[in-house]
């Protein structure tokens, strides 16, 4: 039975509406039409492979399962041909035209919910074919079903309101979609442009793709394979391809999950952090795929900010069932992916820390700041992250780490807080005046070497119900230790501190005798409870308000120190000299605290003092 050809049909009203939206609302991302058509081609090939397992009688059965893209810049066309299952006349009409097709309905609904500008939602409903009309003057679909006895067909439309279907001779199995490009879209008829798009979005499609006869996709979607079957070199090769890296990854996590979501993920930690080197802030670079087809190369909310150093791929089949990132449902889906992946990665780090502590510490030296950032800012994962933090301390050797957990096990029963000091390096903290009082009392102090540490410790606040406290904070109360003989008498001490306050004036908030000093003569503590020296320095570096507010410190003096005893003697016998000495002592304390901004006056004074030795 043959049908008179060509037959002309009207698009249903809903299809017209759909086409209109696709053509006019997605103009910012026209190039995705190629991704959609290649994805359809891949699905058609997949279905054919499936059909071949059960059916004996298949039309054109010797064809290679591949996708061929050709461009013709003279004719201004781009053609996508596959040797998949193809379509019968009924399927053509049905696939295209029936708005009862649930995908189209759901698509229109999503559009109604304000998802206009998102292109992903097209492919996700099996209506990706329509995206061809974003760039097409006219579209011709040549097809032959896998079923023998069906005719070859050509479908044609300019997308405006009607289409025709006609029988053709000599049609190969599958579908060949010929797009005659609009005048402002002719770039898609160039080889280089098509190459760029195919390499970007379709690099991992499992069937061979050729562009004008040349093979495009040679790298496998390693993340979908069983991890026992992937060789080390294959992972490395994939990493280099995906992360555009020349290094090798230092850590790798490859996992799959079915519940609560279908996830295949392959995540890498690079060798080095370029952000740490002082280069620009890293962009998210774990790409989101749906069944090997790129959805978003740099999805913003797929992972928490502090995981921006990760490279790799997350592939979820659940994505197409949902809609665009802008709708509520899809936001929720991305959030769900985020939760599952972050949790899994943290578990991975915990295992690494336990089973390969040296490897973990190598990682930590490079990427520890990101974990600190997370501990300070990501409330959801704080508890897990805090356990991963590592510090040197007054009880570790240089370069050796301890955890907060281990610190707590070493605390004496009367110690209620966890102490830390921030400084540029170990030597500077050890030689500073703050540590000695803690050392004399056998209190361990954590050493922090990064400027963010003060901020991190403040935000983390406590661990195991023990407050994290700066050892240089004015309100730290230390227990008495038996003191050596030879301190200034209480009355003399009182006189001296009073005289010093008068002499130093506005530069100090308070001068008092200290119980935390052992070897140093004086110590400067923050008068300002809310701004530590480190924070002040940071704000100054960032040119922030507060960075150059007049500085006032509390000065504590060591009543046993020879300098102070001499100062007491001099303050009546040689008040001029004593004044210089007091000022110099204050500056020395400020230097130790990293708070002396300008040393000019100090140097002049010191020279004057040296003259009189
Ligand atoms: C999408 C054309 C309607 C197959 N292969 C390929 N594309 C397919 C199908 N689609 N549907 C099935 C589509 C068209 C029209 C829908 Br008209 F390509 N490549 Cl089997």
Number of strands: 22
Shape: elongated
CATH superfamily of the largest domain: Histidine kinase-like ATPase, C-terminal domain
Helix content: 25-40%
Radius of gyration: 36 Å
| CATH-assigned fold name of the largest domain | Heat Shock Protein 90
Number of DSSP helices? 19
| Major beta-sheet overview | 9 strands, mixed
- Number of structurally distinct domains: 4
Structure description:
Strand 8 (209-211) and strand 9 (214-215) form a beta hairpin. It is elongated, with a radius of gyration of 36 Å. Helix 9 packs antiparallel against helix 10 (382-388), helix 17 packs antiparallel against helix 18 (575-592) and helix 18 crosses helix 19. It has 19 helices and 22 strands. The model is unreliable at 320-326 (pLDDT under 50). A nine-stranded mixed β-sheet has the order 1-6-5-4-7-3-2-8-9, with helices on one face. The chain has a five-stranded mixed β-sheet with strand order 10-11-14-12-13, sandwiched between helices. Strands 15-17-16-19-18 form a five-stranded mixed β-sheet. With 613 residues, the chain is α+β, with helices and mostly antiparallel strands. It folds into four domains: 7-215, Histidine kinase-like ATPase, C-terminal domain (Heat Shock Protein 90, 2-Layer Sandwich); 222-362, 2-Layer Sandwich (Ribosomal Protein S5, domain 2); 391-482, 3-Layer(aba) Sandwich (Rossmann fold); 485-613, Heat shock protein 90, C-terminal domain (Four Helix Bundle (Hemerythrin (Met), subunit A)), CATH 1.20.120. The relative contact order is 0.07. Bound molecules: ligand FE6. The site of ligand FE6 has 16 residues, from helix 2, helix 3 and strand 7.
């Amino acid at each position: 039975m043959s049908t008179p050809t060509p037959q002309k049909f009207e698009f249903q009203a809903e299809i017209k509406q759909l086409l209109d939206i696709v053509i006019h609302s997605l103009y910012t991302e026209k190039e995705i039409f190629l991704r959609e058509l290649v994805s359809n081609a891949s699905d058609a090939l997949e279905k054919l492979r499936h059909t071949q397992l059960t059916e004996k009688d298949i039309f054109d059965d010797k064809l290679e399962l591949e996708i061929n893209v050709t461009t013709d810049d003279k004719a201004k066309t781009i053609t996508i041909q596959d040797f998949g299952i193809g379509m019968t006349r009924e399927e053509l009409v049905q696939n295209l035209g029936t708005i009862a097709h649930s995908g189209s309905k759901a698509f229109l609904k999503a559009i109604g919910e304000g998802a206009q500008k998102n292109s992903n939602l097209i492919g996700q409903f099996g209506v990706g074919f329509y995206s061809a009309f974003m760039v097409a003057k006219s579209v011709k679909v040549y097809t032959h079903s896998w079923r023998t006895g069906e005719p070859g067909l050509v479908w044609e439309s300019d997308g405006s309101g009607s289409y025709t279907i006609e029988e053709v001779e000599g049609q190969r199995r599958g579908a060949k979609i010929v797009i005659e490009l609009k005048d402002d879209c002719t770039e898609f008829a160039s080889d280089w442009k098509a190459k760029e798009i195919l390499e970007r979005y379709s690099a991992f499609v499992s069937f061979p793709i050729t562009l004008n006869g040349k093979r495009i996709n040679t790298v496998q979607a390693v993340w979908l394979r069983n991890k026992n079957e992937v060789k080390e070199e294959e992972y490395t090769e994939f990493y280099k391809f995906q992360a555009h890296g020349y290094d090798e990854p230092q850590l790798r996590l490859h996992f799959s999950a079915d519940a609560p979501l279908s996830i295949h993920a392959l995540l890498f930690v690079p060798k080095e952090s370029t952000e740490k080197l002082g280069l620009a802030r890293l962009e998210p670079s774990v790409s989101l795929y749906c069944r090997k087809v790129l959805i978003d190369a740099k999805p913003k909310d797929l992972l928490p900010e502090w995981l921006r150093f990760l490279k790799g791929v997350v592939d979820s089949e659940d994505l197409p069932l949902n809609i665009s990132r802008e709708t509520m449902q899809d936001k929720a889906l991305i959030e769900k992916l985020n939760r599952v992946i972050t949790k899994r990665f943290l578990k991975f780090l915990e295992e690494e820390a336990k089973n390969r502590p040296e490897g973990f510490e190598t990682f930590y030296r490079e990427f520890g700041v990101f974990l600190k950032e997370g501990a300070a800012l990501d409330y959801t994962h704080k508890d897990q992250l805090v356990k991963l933090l590592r510090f040197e301390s007054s009880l570790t050797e240089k370069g050796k780490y301890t955890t907060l957990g281990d610190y707590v096990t070493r605390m004496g029963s009367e110690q209620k807080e966890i102490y830390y000091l921030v400084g540029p390096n170990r030597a500077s903290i050890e030689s500073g005046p703050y540590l000695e009082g803690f050392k004399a009392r056998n209190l361990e102090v954590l050493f922090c070497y990064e400027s963010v540490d003060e901020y991190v410790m403040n935000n983390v606040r406590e661990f195991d119900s023990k407050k994290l406290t700066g050892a240089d904070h004015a309100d730290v109360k230390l227990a008495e230790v038996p003191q050596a003989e030879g301190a200034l008498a209480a009355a003399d001490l009182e006189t001296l501190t009073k005289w010093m306050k008068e002499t130093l004036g506005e530069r100090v908030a308070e001068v008092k005798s200290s119980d935390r000093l052992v070897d140093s003569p004086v110590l400067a503590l923050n008068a300002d409870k809310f701004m530590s020296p480190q924070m002040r320095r940071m704000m100054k570096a960032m040119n922030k308000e507060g960075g150059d507010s007049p500085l006032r410190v509390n000065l504590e003096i060591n009543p046993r120190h020879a300098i102070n005893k001499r100062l007491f003697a001099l303050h009546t016998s040689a008040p001029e000299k004593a004044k210089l000495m007091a000022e110099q002592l204050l500056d020395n304390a400020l230097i130790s605290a990293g708070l002396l901004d300008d040393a000019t006056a100090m140097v002049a004074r010191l020279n004057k003092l040296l003259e009189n030795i």
